Amino acid sequence: MTDSLNPARKKELIREYKKTPKQMGAYSIRNTENDRSYVGVSRDLQARMNRHRFMLNSNAETDIVQLQADWNAHGADAFEFSILEVLEPPEDPGRYDPGEDLLALLELWCEELRPYTPEGYNPPLSTPNADTPAEN
Fold this sequence. Notes:
Blueprint: H1 7-19, E1 24-31, E2 37-42, H2 45-57, H3 65-74, E3 79-87, H4 99-113
Antiparallel strand pairs: 1-2, 1-3
């Protein structure tokens, strides 16, 4: 027996979901076999990490080619996805553009973890990649 929501309740739940602030911040994907890491930032951390997992599982991560190659070689169990830092949402989120704060987080965590190629998966910060602050 399946429970179904009435249309009004369903619309209400969708509205509530859309109002819920998403976690913004920095994350990492670490290969536990060789200790290489990728550091990124996003306006929606869970969605971005889910997208990485989906792309890697689909052999479609074309922006981070070496990460995809290692995923294929070592398997999903060799990788850890972690949230490094979360930006606290402001009291007035309507006027807040987190782009500069996300870029600062990316620079901070890249300085801390040094995930640059060839020891890591990140290109130098001056090189555009799929996970710039404007992403997601």
